[in-house]
Amino acid sequence: MAEIQRGSVAFVFPGQGSQRVGMGREAFEESTLAKAIFAAADDALGESLSQLCFEGPEDALKLTRNTQPAILTTSVALLRAFGERPDVVAGHSLGEYSANVAAGILRLEDAVRLVRTRGELMQAAVPVGVGAMAAILKMERAPLEAVCAAVAAERGEVVECVNYNSPGQIVIAGHAGAVEAASERAKGAGGRAMALPVSAPFHCALMKPAEENLRPYLDAIPFAAGSATLYTNVDAAPVRSGAEARDALARQVSRPVRWDEAIQRMVAEGVTLFVEIGTGTALTGMIKRTTEGATAVSIQKPADFEAARVAIAAARG
User: Fold this and answer.
1) Residue 100's CB: how many other CB atoms inside 10 A?
2) What is the DSSP string of 171-222?
């Protein structure tokens, strides 16, 4: 993996929650390279994931086992249609699989099958209704971590900070009652709390069985060294080998996504432009709230390619 320098360009990839019916259709219709990516994903899964992305139904697309390969495939299809190469890659939660594909660490076909399994294992780890997640706004890391620790100790249940998205935007997860109690306590401390419409409490200790069950599937897949520097969620740091990339994907299942730290480190080490590739602009917003040391643009469809190319040329001088 190449060393990065000032003026480096990072491609970043969204995770679960960015899905929508119609995702990827424009790229599929306008690019033979994107069309080939959707065909490869369909073949890898033995079903028409592309039809689900383009036509729905929405309820089926929202199922974790479908959402994860759909988001991955759409991001990679856009990437291939775009045709530019990154210096650095990163992805938010599920998006780290897209980043591994973008860096040449992981084959698309292997990644699609892995995230299908990942989604099934994460859902199976905690029965629907037992766990919950909530976004906490306008509250910083230390006081919110203290709230979670106090509630967990009082109730004997799990509630943890699991997504450090940007300053003042942190997601908590755990047992449903503990998440609700921590949310109320956070509001009493001046924060805002919003329950998230998810089917499982991702990235908390309750996901440990999913992590352990996913490892054999990851171990069975080849991971290459890669052509771009990959920054992981779990360590907010670059990896130097395919083995490190594989281990990071296993550990992230039951551990926090340290997104804000990863962004800050990438900027400190030379990244001046982030290009978000995939459905939605959630990561672009997080990046803009996290750092003033870099700019961010979003690619959701082929019409966005030209502006992104101009930004990349400016960043690289």
Assistant:
1) 31
2) EEEEEHHHHHHHHHHHHHTT-EEEE---SS-TTSGGGHHHHHHHHHHHHTS-
For residue 90, the cross-strand partners are 12
The reply to whether 93 belongs to the active site is yes
> What backbone phi and psi angles, to 5 degrees, belong to 297?
-130, 165
Catalytic residue among 31, 75, 98, 203: 203
For residue 3, the model assigns a pLDDT of 66
Cα distances (angstroms) measured from residue 168 to each of 165, 193, 201: 8, 11, 20
- Residue 36's H or E segment, with its range, is helix 32-45
The pTM for the full model equals 0.97
Question: In this structure, which amino acid lies at residue 288?
Answer: K
Q: How is residue 51 written in tokens?
A: 């039809």
Q: Which of 31-45, 195-209, 250-264 has the lowest mean pLDDT?
A: 195-209
CA end-to-end distance (rounded Å), the chain: 22
pLDDT tens digits, one per residue of 236-289: 999 999 999 999 999 999 999 999 999 999 999 999 999 999 999 999 999 999
Q: What is the pLDDT of residues 126-170, one digit of tens each?
A: 998 999 999 999 999 999 999 999 999 999 999 999 999 999 999
Q: Which of 50, 93, 254, 298 is catalytic?
A: 93
